[in-house]
Amino acid sequence: MDHQNIGLLIAELGFPIVMALAAFGALWWTQKFVMASLHRDIEEVKSELVSSQQAQYEIIVKLIDRVSGLSDGVLRTEIICRTAIGLEQEWNRIGMAKGGRKKD
Fold first, then answer.
1. Model's pTM, two decimal places?
2. Would you list the domain boundaries of the chain?
3. Cα 2 to chain center, whole Å?
4. Quick count: other Cβ atoms within 10 Å of Cβ 24?
5. pLDDT tens digits for 1-44?
6. CA-to-CA distance for 57 and 50, rounded, in angstroms?
7. How far apart are CA 50 and CA 79, in angstroms?
8. What distance in Å separates the CA atoms of residue 12 and residue 6, rounded to the nearest whole number?
9. Are 75 and 94 in contact (CB under 8 A)?
10. What tens digit of pLDDT does each residue of 74-87 get?
11. Could you give the C-alpha distances from 91 to 8, 12, 72, 75, 98, in angstroms and in order?
12. CA 12 to chain CA centroid, nearest Å
């Protein structure tokens, strides 16, 4: 808009209404700018979280495998020690989950 159109608009609507419309336009533009920058920042954080979650998932899988391997090693060591000492094996306990149920 040029100066002549703004002058006509002020003459027809009044200065307070034109200034209110201008303030509304400025607030709308500011809000649009802030929302766009927030959306960009949120997308960046979201992509970082996805990559972090993937890394954590891989770590958890490796830890579960390590614990399973250690559990098998402890069981083998217990069986060897019981055999060497001459103690009776607890075959009903081997292969059981917590709570005394069979593992699948």
1. 0.46
2. 3-85
3. 51
4. 10
5. 677 888 888 888 899 999 999 999 999 999 999 999 999 999 99
6. 10
7. 44
8. 10
9. yes
10. 888 988 998 899 88
11. 98, 97, 14, 11, 15
12. 55
